[in-house]
Design a protein that fits this description.
- Strands 1, 2, 4, 5, 6, 7 and 10 form a seven-stranded mixed sheet that branches.
- By secondary structure, the protein is mainly β.
- It folds into two domains: 171 residues, Immunoglobulin-like, CATH 2.60.40; 65 residues, Trypsin Inhibitor V, Chain A.
- The radius of gyration is 24 Å and the shape is elongated.
- It contains two helices and 17 strands.
Length: 253
């Protein structure tokens, strides 16, 4: 099981009050995950939003909820484990009272690239917290700065103001991924029968996941018509290769 080292760093907390004022203060105890090796993690920063209850609560009435509900988001800086190479990060939202729903999406990407290394997403209802863990097998011979970005959509209980809110946060770390360990080349299995392709990939130390796609030529039925990653790609042993098996639709004889 992948293990991340938990560290404590200083955070900056931005609090949005019910009146819309933004108050920024220093706070300690915000968690981050320091990389197991080859990382220089930056501190993370929280963003917090507070919703106020209906007037009858503020006047001493009782709607069954507190006068204020506060929700915060926090992310960890990306980190890397020992081989097999895994890059991972986490994000979570916590509220001090159950709310209507939390939708949280997390992306890990390398600076200067539009490609996500790892992604995770969760949508939960009637809870006070939600978390994601974006984790992926990945190798970067050069290394660089990796950023974990998360955004959450918050729906407060009926009657609270604001009714909805968005929270976002990000954290970066410099990962030296020059030692990428053993890699194998993905074989070209195009045109092979399903069982043959699975055996070919297994011989190379890779796992096959097959999906069926419609084809218009009977000759392609039961055979591999596509694969991902592409042939020749350098991947970690034990990686998954998606193969697409043709199923003839009977349109051509």
């Amino acid at each position: 099981m992948t293990r991340f080292t938990r560290a404590v760093v200083t955070a900056t907390v931005a609090v949005v009050t019910a009146a819309g004022a933004l108050v920024v203060s220093a706070a300690s105890g915000a968690p981050a995950y320091a990389a197991a090796r080859n990382a220089s993690a930056s501190s993370t920063s929280d963003q917090t939003v507070q919703a106020s209850a209906p007037v009858n609560v503020q006047d001493g009435g009782d709607t069954g909820g507190p006068q204020y509900i506060t929700c915060s988001i926090n992310v960890s800086a990306p980190s890397k484990t020992l081989p097999p190479e895994l890059v991972g990060a986490s994000a979570y939202v916590t509220c001090d009272y159950p709310i209507a729903s939390i939708e949280l999406t997390e992306h890990v990407h390398k600076e200067g690239s539009n490609v996500d290394v790892a992604v995770d997403h969760v949508l939960v209802s009637g809870v006070s917290s939600a978390g994601t863990v974006a984790l992926a097998a990945f190798c970067d011979p050069v290394g660089g700065v990796y950023t974990n970005s998360a955004i959450a959509s918050i729906d407060f209980p009926a009657g609270y103001s604001p009714q909805t809110a968005s929270l976002h946060d990000s954290a970066s770390s410099a990962l030296g991924l020059g030692d990428c360990g053993v890699r194998v080349a993905v074989p070209n299995v195009a045109g092979q029968a399903r069982n043959v392709a699975v055996n070919t990939l297994a011989t190379a130390g890779l796992n096959a996941v097959a999906s069926v796609v419609t084809v218009h030529e009977s000759v392609d039925s039961g055979h591999v018509v596509g694969q991902s990653p592409t042939p020749g790609s350098a991947v970690i042993p034990g990686s998954t290769v998606n193969i697409f098996i043709g199923q003839w639709d009977g349109s051509h004889l």
